[in-house]
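From the methods appendix. Each design record in this collection lists the tokenized structure first, followed by the designed amino acid sequence. Records were kept in a plain field format so they could be parsed without special tools. The example shown here is representative of the layout used throughout.

RECORD:
FOLD TOKENS (358 positions):
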């Protein structure tokens, strides 16, 4: 063997090869690091978006940007919109259920839709579609006042009564320009109710006793652990009567054929329910019919062409906040225990309601 070749062979043998496996591990570690950083950035962006949604939704829930238009009937693409706003279930102030539930008529949501309609230049008329037994006094009054704002803007508002439009449902309806009811609609029930439960006899039987420490003699008016005194009954009844007088005044203001005296001194105002056909005779509604009849009334009131209008409703746009809000509502929902005879409306003690008695 040539000495030079032997030397080269020795050099080749002595030179160590590069650790290829270690280099591959470094590349894999780098890729994983970049992936983790991207994930962290994505999560940060989602959290920031959720926070932004919270503040934007709380401040602009009645903005048109918060809603999509959902087609119901009529000419698609028409700029003459008849907006339908549903009032379905017990009328209440807040959210009785999660964001994806249809339980109850939230005054918050309904008023936001009505306020959004004021900003929608294409809305030429509004239909309040009522299927409700009533609910909280203040919540019903909030919706009533939102309807008045629509009317002041020279936009016709028509109430369409479905199966049920009693008490608070009627309270909202009489604030509209016209009322259309089905002959078999259950309506009426002009009255006020406040409810509490008395359980002091039960406490005696099971050996329980309740103690309350109040700052005044009438602070615990609705305390169920003791009998109600006559003076307390008079105080509560006075408040009920005052709210009833307000209810009667609202009905009289919205129904030209009726006066407050006529309502109070007839079967119209004694709290009873009545069918739609009887409500027509009593002057509580303007005509009998179905939803499409209400659409026709709204179209004529807005002076829209027969072939150039679109009936639609607002649907809330999906956002990260709505999803998170739904999960939060579901997680925080209370366990409800209903007493026998308490009915399905689950009235909260101490609140005035426009509702038929259970």
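DESIGN:
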């Amino acid at each position: 063997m040539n000495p030079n070749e032997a030397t080269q062979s020795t050099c080749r043998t002595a030179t160590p090869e590069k650790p290829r496996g270690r280099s591959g591990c470094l590349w894999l570690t780098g890729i994983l690091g970049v992936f983790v950083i991207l994930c962290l950035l994505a999560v940060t962006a989602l959290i920031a978006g959720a926070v932004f949604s919270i503040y934007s939704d709380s401040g602009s829930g009645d903005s048109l940007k918060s809603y999509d238009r959902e087609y119901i009937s009529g000419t698609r693409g028409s700029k003459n919109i008849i907006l339908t706003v549903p009032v379905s279930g017990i009328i209440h102030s807040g959210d009785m259920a999660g964001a994806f539930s249809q339980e109850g008529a939230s005054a918050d949501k309904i008023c936001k839709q009505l306020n959004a309609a004021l900003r929608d230049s294409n809305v030429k008329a509004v239909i309040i579609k009522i299927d409700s037994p009533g609910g909280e006094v203040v919540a019903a009054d909030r919706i009533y006042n939102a309807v008045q704002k629509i009317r002041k803007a020279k936009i016709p508002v028509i109430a369409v009564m479905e199966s049920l439009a009693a008490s608070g449902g009627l309270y909202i309806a009489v604030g509209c320009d016209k009322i259309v009811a089905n002959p078999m609609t259950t309506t009426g029930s002009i009255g006020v109710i406040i409810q509490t439960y008395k359980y002091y006899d039960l406490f005696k039987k099971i050996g329980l006793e309740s103690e309350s420490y109040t700052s005044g003699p009438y602070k615990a008016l609705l305390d169920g652990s003791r009998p109600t005194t006559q003076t307390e009954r008079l105080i509560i009844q006075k408040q009920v009567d005052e709210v009833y007088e307000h209810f009667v005044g609202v009905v009289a203001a919205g129904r030209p054929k009726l006066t407050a005296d006529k309502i109070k001194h007839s079967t119209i105002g004694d709290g009873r329910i009545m069918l739609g056909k009887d409500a027509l005779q009593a002057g509580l509604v303007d005509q009998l019919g179905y939803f499409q009849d209400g659409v026709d009334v709204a179209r004529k009131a807005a002076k829209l062409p027969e072939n150039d209008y679109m009936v639609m409703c607002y649907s809330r746009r999906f956002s990260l906040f709505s999803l998170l809000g739904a999960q939060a509502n579901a997680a925080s929902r209370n366990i409800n225990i209903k007493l026998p005879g308490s009915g399905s409306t689950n009235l909260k003690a101490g609140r005035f309601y426009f509702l038929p008695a259970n």
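APPENDIX NOTE: Confidence is low (pLDDT under 50) at residues 6-11, 52-60, 96-102, 325-344.
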